[in-house]
Amino acid sequence: MKKSVLRIKKRIFDNVKEFYGAYHQIDSAKKNTGHIPYASRVFDENELIALVDSSLDFWLTAGRYADKFEKGLASFLGIKYCLLTNSGSSANLLAVSALTSSLLKSRQLKPGDEVITTACGFPTTLNPILQNNLVPVFVDVELGTYDIQVEKIEKAITKRTKGIFVAHTLGNPVDINGLSKIVKKYNLWWIEDNCDSLGSKYKGRFTGTFGDISTCSFYPAHHITMGEGGAVLTDNPLLRRIIMSFRDWGRACYCDTGKDNTCGKRFSQKFGNLPYGYDHKYVYSHIGYNLKVTDMQAAIGCAQLKKLPGFIDARKRNFCFLKKHFKKYEDYLILPVPTEGSDPSWFGFPILVRESAPFTRNDLVNYLEQNKIATRMLFGGNLTKQPAYKNVKYRIFEDLRNTDLVMNNLFWIGVYPGLNRYMLTYIKNTIKGFFKKI
After folding, report:
1. Rg (CA), the chain
2. Minimal CA–CA distance to 228: which of 290, 310, 294?
3. DSSP three-state, residue 212
4. d(CA 239, CA 99)
5. pLDDT tens digits for 228-267?
6. What Cα–Cα distance (Å) separates residue 193 from each residue in 20, 88, 146, 245, 377?
7. Taking Cα atoms as reference points, which of 7, 106, 10, 100 lies closest to residue 49?
8. How many whole angstroms from its chain centre is CA 227?
9. Residue 222 designated active-site
10. Are the C-beta atoms of residues 222 and 122 closer than 8 Å to each other?
């Protein structure tokens, strides 16, 4: 690059840094309690500089920053392949869709096959199962961990069961040891929804590295952000190729963006009823989508990825602070419990109001909201109660009693890295004020 261009870039970046300081930077020690969100993006001038740097390239689609991020996240987690996409929801869609590929031969998922999951969670874990004409089988969750009851999974399996797709709820890993044994015994596909759990560990190993495929989300509420964005991860080279195909219009070609003839046989192959030598770049092996990410999003992600270890530590500290100060109210509340053998990178702090408590969830939630502390439900509660799923085909194993209890009695508050000591103390004192009235 010419020295003159580098000098111009430096001036631009210096101005961006100055702009960040004048417009975005907030002295956290002076931040008031006008509103305490459940989550928010945490960034500095480095994200803005990376974003501007990418925009100056004007490449727009996935490019050098996307490549850098994919390699960086894969290296961080200790997994072979990372494929960026435009959202965590798209990542989930790609993960399930990939398993319907005919390239998987006898293990291909087909319409009517069953996939075990939970009804307690976010709809985009469930939706791809339905969108691929598969049948979800709902197993109830544990109280305290809010993860799937692994001990019930084996009993829920039928000859139609071909996969398991579950999330690590609010960052708390599922019983991976028990789940791994079932997956191996019955030769099932296993997709980890790791969207709320980036940085969580089970027996010293990161979640998102145990299943056949895992997914991440980089929505602003998550552990790192690109604004929008997601990733699909795998150690399986065939699955990587299939996922890339579904993400990139369903094409058979696996060249990186901007490259040609990686296979060396671009004009010398025969596909289906196409004429011999038809351009491999325009051969389609799947009915796919266009779910790629932009390089500007990836640029933000690269800056965020450097902060991830610090973000993880902050989430753990904030969680521990809240749990310490909520313990005195356990007669009324069920507090979160890490899965045995796990070290969660918590997404939130779930609180379940006991059925015997002299107040309701709504009483506590309304009090917190009135005092400017944001709360959230555990996403869709019991998804079978949601209007979108009124007429869809699914199977419930035994019952969803705990899922209904979560729907009626549970909420959560934030532990995101932007919470400072002053804000956490305000939450503690506000809760104390509520219980003084009980």
Report:
1. 23
2. 294
3. coil
4. 8
5. 999 999 999 999 999 999 999 999 988 877 778 888 899 9
6. 34, 9, 14, 20, 19
7. 10
8. 13
9. yes
10. no
Token code pair at residue 136: 């979800």
pLDDT per residue over 79-88, tens digit each?
999 999 999 9
- Furthest C-alpha separation in the chain: 80
Catalytic residue among 24, 35, 168, 222: 222
Give the span between the Cα atoms of 369 and 277, in whole angstroms.
64
Q: Find where tokens 């797709």 sit.
A: 165
Would you call 118 exposed, middle or buried from its count of C-beta atoms within 10 A (0-12, 13-18, 19+)?
buried
Distance between CA 386 and CA 304 in Å, rounded? 35
Orientation of helix 361-370 relative to helix 421-436, angle to 10° = 130
- Number of neighbouring beta carbons within 10 Å of residue 105: 7
Provide the 3-class DSSP secondary structure of residue 353.
strand
Q: What is the pLDDT along the chain (438 residues), one digit of tens a residue?
A: 788 999 999 999 999 999 999 999 865 445 555 789 999 999 999 999 999 999 999 999 999 999 999 999 999 999 999 999 999 999 999 999 999 999 999 999 999 999 999 999 999 999 999 999 999 999 999 999 999 999 999 999 999 999 999 999 999 999 999 999 999 999 999 999 999 999 999 999 999 999 999 999 999 999 999 999 999 999 999 999 999 999 999 999 888 777 788 888 999 999 999 999 999 999 999 999 999 999 999 999 999 999 999 999 999 999 999 999 999 999 999 999 999 999 999 999 999 999 999 999 999 999 999 999 999 999 999 999 999 999 999 999 999 999 999 999 999 999 999 999 999 999 999 999 999 988
- Look up residue 383 and give its amino acid: L
Whole-angstrom distance, CA of residue 83 vs CA of residue 357 = 47
Domains in the chain with CATH codes: 53-296 (3.40.640.10), 308-436 (3.90.1150.10)
Dig out the tokens for 171 from the structure. Answer: 């960052």
Q: Round to whole Å and give the CA distance between 347 and 334.
A: 17
Taken as a whole, the chain contains a residue count of 438
